[in-house]
């Protein structure tokens, strides 16, 4: 199950919480016995509760992988749903230990918000969702349109830059809550909805008749979505980073949730043995044990398995891997070597 955390608007005053906590997050998580993981308010394919109340998606499974690596239990995680405006404040205030929440890594966020980006877990780009009946095939046809946007997301600035460079006039209609944006678009309050294309693909399925809406081919930005931790907590950043990279390295080495236990016993590949903690103890350098990677993979599978069931061929969204394919298969997904 998951819990929804509502943040007081008073927390928006960053000056009250800008000092980085001196306590080590890894120690805090262990003492608490649970990982507090900040996720979206309901992004299909990334973090969305199913009919049984279980959180599903790429980001949700990365939270579980970190919990498995640190606490030896993938279910020892609370999913804290946060709006775009709330996410950094919640992290700074210590309400969550990390964000796995469709968050774009940018220079200003890296320098000004008091956070560190541990690893990019999804490569995306901003696009447009439009009603098919409008006959629009290019965003340049949206001159004078009303565009639905999520307040606090990088898509607001991206759209201003893109349309500004083309001299296109538009009216932004901003919403803080994810479902509010989808509802506004679905009821015709705006002519188009613009955000990351993978998010659009998931939100499109929430509409009354998804087939009556199309995602334009145009991509107007780079959106490297990353896992986020508090600034100046290098050990915790390393734990989150290498727990995720275990999943990417596992795909590259052909290690799956179904085979990981057997490979730990029988593999003769030194890279596999190092990854699974059978020929080294790299976990000790992180403050973990040798088998933290093995547990993360066993809990959620490798990166490709997570992608396929959350966003890809085994999901309702059916996204292609695209830039999220492994580097040795023509994509950008890449993890540092395990040695």
TrEMBL record:
SMART domains named among the record's database cross-references: PBPb
Q: Does the keyword Transport apply?
A: yes
UniProt keywords, alphabetically: Signal, Transport
Chain ranges of the Solute-binding protein family 3/N-terminal domain: 34-263
Stored InterPro entries: Bact_solute-bind_prot3, Solute-binding_3/MltF_N
Q: Name one GO biological process term.
A: amino acid transport
Instruction: Please list which residues make up the signal peptide.
Output: 1-23
- A Pfam family annotated for this chain is SBP_bac_3
The family line of this record is: Belongs to the bacterial solute-binding protein 3 family.
**Designated name of the protein:** Amino acid ABC transporter substrate-binding protein
């Amino acid at each position: 199950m998951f819990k929804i955390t509502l943040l007081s608007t008073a927390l928006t005053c960053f000056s009250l919480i800008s000092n980085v906590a001196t306590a080590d997050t890894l120690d805090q998580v262990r003492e608490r016995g649970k990982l507090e993981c900040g996720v979206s308010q309901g992004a299909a394919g990334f973090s969305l509760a199913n009919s049984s109340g279980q959180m599903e998606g790429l980001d949700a499974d990365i939270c579980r992988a970190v919990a498995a690596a640190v606490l030896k239990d993938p279910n020892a995680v609370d999913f804290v749903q946060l709006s775009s405006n709330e996410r950094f404040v919640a992290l700074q205030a210590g309400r969550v230990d990390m964000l796995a929440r469709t968050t774009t890594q940018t220079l200003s966020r890296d320098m000004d918000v008091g956070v560190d980006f541990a690893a990019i877990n999804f490569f995306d780009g901003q696009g447009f969702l439009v009603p098919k009946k409008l006959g629009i095939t290019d965003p340049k046809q949206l001159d004078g349109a009303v565009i639905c946007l999520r307040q606090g997301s990088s898509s607001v600035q991206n759209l201003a830059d893109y349309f500004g460079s083309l001299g296109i006039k538009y009216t932004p209609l901003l919403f803080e809550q994810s479902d509010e944006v989808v509802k506004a678009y679905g009821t015709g309050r705006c002519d188009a909805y613009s955000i990351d294309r993978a998010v659009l693909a998931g939100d499109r399925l929430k509409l009354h008749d998804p087939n009556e809406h199309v995602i334009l081919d145009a991509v107007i930005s780079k959106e490297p979505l990353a896992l986020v931790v508090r600034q100046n907590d290098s050990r915790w950043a390393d734990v989150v980073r290498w727990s995720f990279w275990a999943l990417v390295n596992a795909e590259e080495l052909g290690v799956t949730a179904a085979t990981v236990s057997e490979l730990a016993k029988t593999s003769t590949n030194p890279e596999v043995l190092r990854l699974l903690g059978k020929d080294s103890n790299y976990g000790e350098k992180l403050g973990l044990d040798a088998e933290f990677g093995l547990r993360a993979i066993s809990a959620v599978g490798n990166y490709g398995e997570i992608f396929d069931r959350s966003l890809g061929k085994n999901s309702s969204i059916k996204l292609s891997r695209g830039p999220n394919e492994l580097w040795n298969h023509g994509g950008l997904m890449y993890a540092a070597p395990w040695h």
